[in-house]
Specification:
single chain, Hypothetical Protein Yqey, Chain: A, domain1, alpha+beta, 3 domains, Alpha-Beta Plaits, two-stranded antiparallel ribbon, 13 helices, 20% strand, 8-stranded mixed beta sheet
Length: 320
């Protein structure tokens, strides 16, 4: 998901040594030109510039999750909830509705219930209510599946590829100053063009390393990719995750496997199990229960880094 760049001053992780005030004066340009980000997370994800430096204070608002964050997948320019299948086709199309459950958990449980591999057009948020299409090749094995936090309903048959054209969001802000919100939206609208990054939602903030996994795979460092998937704990992760990752990094992969929770870490469990069984990092990576998103996220990181090159050269055109 793309992120429009406007500095709000709400994060507390300035990159030490950058001298953000000096950079602001040196890099801010007339007419709403970009300013260099002083935040460590932005540096790691390639989000090097903010379109406008307003130093807005954080809004005293919250998004009630999951009910206040609704994601509706768009297919061929229309909400997926409006999709209607036919009588004939090479695949059976379902509508998946999930609430407060991650994509991997829901997709694996649904695939087991169907007895067939379920295919998706994209991965949706965990802490939200989401609507998306899914399909199995061939005739439908069941008309409906209900699981923990999700349901799957048959929409009919379809022939050929389904075209994912985006996502629609309905976000509820509680306690927001509506006037201030409108002023900020108006300010951004007045700029005409903004830096359109792949932002935090694409990479995550608790463990933003999927693009590094993709980089390791692209360089042929498959063992390094396995290490990045299973080890290297991040401070913002739950304690149980930091525990098994630390065991792996300390040279105890068997202990790490025993410590991985049964729910929520299917990727790590499958990759580590296969690595311990075969000693082959390539086979371990192929054991991923879903096609790994790391290459896509590496591409997203590269895009955001390239988008930042325009402001670094004084350009007024921002790709995206």
């Amino acid at each position: 998901m793309c992120q429009l760049a406007a500095r709000t001053g709400s994060r507390q992780d300035p990159l030490h040594g950058l001298g953000s005030k000096a950079l602001t004066k040196a890099l801010a340009m007339a007419g709403g030109m970009p300013v260099r980000s002083p935040y460590r997370l932005d540096m790691e994800l390639g989000l090097l510039y903010y379109t406008v430096d307003e130093a807005w204070a954080p809004l005293s608002a919250r998004v009630p999750r999951p009910e206040g964050f609704i994601v509706i997948e768009e297919v061929d320019g229309r909400p997926c909830t409006e999709f209607r299948g036919g009588e004939e086709g090479d695949r059976a199309v379902y509508l998946m509705v999930k609430k407060g459950v991650d994509h991997l958990t829901a997709s694996l449980e649904a695939s087991r219930a169907l007895g067939r591999r379920l295919h998706f057009l994209g991965v949706k948020d965990a802490n939200a209510i989401t609507y998306q299409l899914a399909y199995v090749m061939g005739p439908p094995p069941r008309a409906e599946v209900r699981g923990r936090g999700f349901e799957l309903r048959l929409l009919g048959a379809h022939r050929g590829r389904l075209r994912h054209t985006g996502n629609r969001f309905e976000v509820l802000l509680e306690g927001a100053d509506e006037g201030e919100l409108r002023r900020r939206a108006s300010r951004l609208s007045s700029l005409g063009k903004v830096l359109n990054y792949f932002g935090y939602q694409r990479f995550g903030v608790r463990r933003p390393n999927s693009h590094l996994v993709g980089k390791a795979i692209a360089k042929g460092d498959l063992r390094g990719a396995v290490d990045l998937i299973i080890g290297r704990p991040y401070p913002g992760e739950p304690e149980v995750a930091r525990a098994f990752r630390s065991l792996y990094d300390s040279g105890d992969p068997e202990g790490a496997l025993r410590a991985i929770p049964r729910r929520g870490y299917e990727l790590e469990r499958r990759v580590l199990s296969e690595y311990l069984r075969t000693g082959d990092p390539a086979r371990a990576l192929r054991a991923s229960p879903l096609p790994p998103p790391s290459s896509l996220k590496r591409t997203s990181h590269t895009y955001s880094t390239c988008a930042s090159q325009g402001p670094s050269r004084g350009a007024r055109y921002y790709p995206g």
